[in-house]
Amino acid sequence: MAGKMRNCQRCGKLFMQQSREKICRDCRDADAAMEAKVMDFVRSNPECKVPDIIEGTGAEESLIRRMIDDGRFEQNVIKTNCKKCGKEIVGGPYCEACLSSMQENLQSVQERISASSTAAAAARGRGMHSKNLGKK
Ligand SMILES: [Zn+2]
Ligand SMILES: [Zn+2]
């Protein structure tokens, strides 16, 4: 006989396991229906976040997370928060403002480093700015 009887991990009902599924057909059907509902909701609410989906569809967060992990949603659907300022963003980890300000910071740091090393080299070469050195 194909498959073996086992208990559905979701509802506990005995079912005939065909491959490696852990949940019974009813639960899989219910999942599929819920996933379709979530997809519909997400399509008509492109700005929605996970809590909105839960509220709008009654889906379990774990199901939504699994769908996210499976890449079921377009990347621009599920928002996260910027790790720096907490602003809602599409894809992480930082928002554009933080990214560009970090880029600017990086740039100005690099400029300062190269400027100061140039200045230091110039100072060493000309023996100037010595009053700024060695004292703190
Ligand atoms: Zn079940
Ligand atoms: Zn930010």
Description:
The model has no long low-confidence stretch (mean pLDDT 82). The protein has one domain. It is 50% helix and 10% strand. Strands 1-2 form a two-stranded antiparallel ribbon. The protein has a two-stranded antiparallel sheet with strand order 3-4. The chain has 136 residues and is mainly alpha-helical. It has helices at residues 25-44, 50-57, 61-69, 96-126, and strands at residues 4-7, 14-17, 79-81, 88-90. The protein is elongated, with a radius of gyration of 28 Å. The chain contains four helices and four strands. One zinc ion (ZN) binds at residues 8, 10-11, 13, 23-24, 26-27.
Q: How much helical structure, as a percent, in the residues?
A: 40-55%
Global outline: elongated
| N-to-C order of helices and strands | EEHHHEEH
pLDDT averaged residue by residue: 82
Ligand names: zinc ion
By helix and strand content, what is the structural category? mainly alpha
Number of domains: 1
The count of DSSP E runs of length 2 or more, i.e. the number of strands, is 4
Distance between the termini: 85 Å
Q: Which value, in Å, is the CA radius of gyration? A: 28 Å
The major sheet is characterized as: 2 strands, antiparallel
